[in-house]
Amino acid sequence: MSIANKKAIFFDLDHTLWDFEKNSALAFEVLLPKYNIAIKPADFLTHYVPANANYWKLYRDGLITQQQLRYGRLKDVFTALNYNISDYLLADLSDDYIRLLPTNNHLFEGAVELLEYLKPKYSLHIITNGFHEVQALKMKSANIDHYFETVTNSENAGFKKPHPSIFEYALTAANVERCDSIMIGDCIEADVQGALNCGLDAIYFNEHSLEAHPSIIQVNHLLELKNLL
């Protein structure tokens, strides 16, 4: 795979540029006391992080709806903690979380420096499975929306990563050829393999240094991308 002479870069948003775990933790630190839920945020997050990842995989695979994702990931946490909560309170908490989450604006270290470096050299774009309204607020709150020419999400494309059609949609929206483009993301299945299966080159943002096939180009820190692009 050659990553030379590219013209367009497509980024995933959550867990790649926008620090979902940190911003999510901040939201729950506010919301659990607000709803008088007697659970320490750290204990809550111990269960929420894997539950959220699991529900996003189910959503990505088309096995659950957006609403089931938003409800189920929270319900499973309270069940695991043996904490009784009414469906009414759970619904309110879920809605409040979706409202509060995108107002937090923590990015991964080096994100802005990287975007400043890339912007004069490439057209920059987003491909995300996240929901349009929430993702737009995240980018605006973090003041990175102006770096990107297009934002493709699963709602406007009608498909979720790793389906080839969302990448096709993004390429058309950006008016670029796949041979001139590269995808960068944190999820091997959705971002990297999804892009490769569609004929796009890809770089794996492997923050946690997970085991990956040696043929996959990867970085552990965003600023390492400056040495590749």
UniProtKB/TrEMBL annotation:
Gene Ontology terms, MF aspect: 5'-nucleotidase activity
Classification via Pfam families: Hydrolase (PF00702)
InterPro entries given in the database record: HAD-like_sf, HAD-SF_hydro_IA, HAD-SF_hydro_IA_YjjG/PynA, HAD_sf, PGP-like_dom2, Pyrimidine_5'-ntase_YjjG
Protein name: Haloacid dehalogenase
